[in-house]
Amino acid sequence: MLTRPMTLTRFLIEQQRLNGTIPAQLRLLIEIVARTCKAISHSVNKGALGGVLGNHGTDNVQGEAQMKLDVLANEMVLDANEWGGHLAAMASEEMETIHLIPNRYPKGEYLLLFDPIDGSSNVDVDLSVGTIFSVLTAPDDASGRTVVESDFLQSGRRQVAAGYAIYGPQTLLVLTVGSGVYEFALDRELGSWVLITERLRIPSGKREFAINMSNQRHWSPAVRRYIDECLAGADGPREANFNMRWTGSMVADIHRILKRGGVFLYPWDGRDPKKPGKLRLMYEANPMGFLIEQAGGRATNGVAPILDVAPDALHQRIGVVMGDPAEVDRVAAYHDGDVAG
Ligand code: P6P
């Protein structure tokens, strides 16, 4: 008998029929974001041949130089999601303020936040990058008025969906709607996202940490102690050797941790007290934290769950420690008494 592949479309329809977890508008949102990630993957894979490499010549709200792909992917997500009637507004790492749905289109109940190309500086050197997205529901009273930035300032616990696409040797989509983590591979011949992993769980006990060691002198004493013990390996208190990975792309590092375990740290550091960390809460830490928790992991700011943080600004940054619960909890225990950031 033909074993038909479980495509994203069929998965979403069956999840709605079996669990009622994916209302029609949310299903449309996820399908449109997934279709946009297919198009972004095509542009990323074209690289130099598509004229998409290099700097765009502008800076984003973070003061970071925008790559051509940052701007292109941002436009692709906006264009694809404006007309469907599923969104109230959008926000992106690449835009200073929120993007309202033009009056010529119907509005929906969801808010989409995204980092169109996370780790974009890696594209020019052919390393994996990705698109991260997070979905919130607009406040009830927003239906009768224009959405404002403060409508986005909801804790990560209120996300109704989150995911990422990773553009690497394969193009993969990793998604949660709050009932487990599901992994899809892009079948370029069919043009379909095909389910390859159901209810993904982070393997425990993997002795592998991901951190940018060049920032060591800026870390809190707790993080320095944790990393020192990893580096001491079998000769130190952990009595086991650790491996280290750092790709410079959160999507690639978190995907590796979801698939084979370990811990990712971009912790608070003392370089700029106004910036408690490098990564952004609303469209990097929250969606990744939602996925990590749904896969049985832990996601904190070093001490407390990221998803419980009450945001006070759209582009606020936060320290991040996420992955194997035992390792994340150890970092939190070492922070006892010296909470930083
Ligand atoms: P650094 C990419 O710019 C990013 O936001 C994350 O994807 C990545 O984990 C981090 O910054 C890398 O930062 O300081 O090592 O270049």
Automatic annotation (TrEMBL):
GO MF entries: fructose 1,6-bisphosphate 1-phosphatase activity
Enzyme class: hydrolase
Sequence positions that bind Mg(2+) 1: E93, D115, I117
Domain Fructose-1-6-bisphosphatase class 1 C-terminal as annotated: residue spans: 202-335
Organism lineage string: Bacteria, Pseudomonadati, Pseudomonadota, Alphaproteobacteria, Geminicoccales
Catalytic activity field: beta-D-fructose 1,6-bisphosphate + H2O = beta-D-fructose 6-phosphate + phosphate
Cited Gene3D superfamilies: 3.40.190.80, Fructose-1,6-Bisphosphatase, subunit A, domain 1
Gene from which the chain derives: fbp
Family: Belongs to the FBPase class 1 family.
Sequence ranges assigned to domain Fructose-1-6-bisphosphatase class I N-terminal in this UniProt record: 6-197
Protein name in the entry: Fructose-1,6-bisphosphatase class 1
